[in-house]
Amino acid sequence: MVELKNVDVHYKEGGVDALNDVSLRINDGEFVFIVGSSGAGKSTLLKLLTREKTPTNGRVFVNGYNLSNLKNRKIPYFRRSMGMIFQDFRLIPNLTVYENVAFVLRVTDRSSRYIRQRVPYVLNLVKLNDKARAYPSQLSGGEQQRVAIARAFAPDPGLIIADEPTGNIDPELSYEIVEILKDINKCGTTVLMVTHEHDLVKYFGGRIISLKKGNVDFDDYIGGDGDSE
Question: What pLDDT does residue 11 have?
Fold first, then answer.
């Protein structure tokens, strides 16, 4: 569960009000698109949810943690409860696809048996079983992003945050990426996807949270154009 209660974020530099009295709740198992133009507050919202920043006022709750008063020593444990997907993939270049996914499980002390079972499962989910021994440089942009999705999902987190996951891939592959995230969501994982691609949002529909000048401008469910196909 993700919840913000009357959250303000003010940057002293330049007197910028990044978020203004934002309150919202995202329940476990939801898939939510977060949209907004540059400077709307999307990046600040993500920094709050990952505990890179604390609010000036208000409270933030994620996965059972009260981030407003979370001690620094507990931040790494909190972040293990979520998976992150970035626009620039952030794969380890000298590791194979299999090793990139397995790496995140090793650093969280998962057993070798679990890793041997889990990695093929998530690679199959993103349709990359045949690329397990390939290196990132041997993959297309879309394939690299699918590895990044597999890596984020491998520890079976309660929440996945995807920050512009389609920004560095061919537009026609963007729909495939969202379909994979939808499949992960069907497994029970909450997915928050930040995007500026309104065609994707219009096609898939669902719950849309729109930020504008630090405020929640829209928060509702819309039907997707793809539902009629």
Answer: 85
End-to-end C-alpha distance for the chain, whole angstroms: 32
The pair phi, psi for residue 226, each rounded to 5°, is -70, -15
CB atoms within 10 A of CB 99: 16
Distance CA 124, CA 139 (A): 16
d(CA 8, CA 20): 5
Express each pLDDT in 21-59 by its tens digit: 999 999 999 999 999 998 899 999 999 999 999 999 999
Give 144-197 pLDDT, tens digit per residue.
999 999 999 999 999 999 999 999 898 889 999 999 999 999 999 999 999 999
Between helix 141-153 and helix 97-106 the angle, nearest 10°, is 20
Region 92-107: mean pLDDT is: 97
pTM comes to 0.93
Where do the structural domains in the chain lie, given as residue ranges?
A: 1-81+159-229, 91-156
Query: C-alpha angle with apex 45: 41 to 50, nearest 5 degrees?
Result: 150
Confidence of residue 226 (pLDDT cuts 50, 70, 90): confident
Helix axes 112-125, 141-153, angle to 10 degrees: 140
- Residue 111: strand, helix, or coil: coil
Q: Which of 66, 56, 8, 4 is nearest to 32 (CA)?
A: 4
Answer yes or no: CATH 3.10.105.10 is held by domain 1-81+159-229.
Answer: no
Rounded CA separation 16/214 (Å): 10
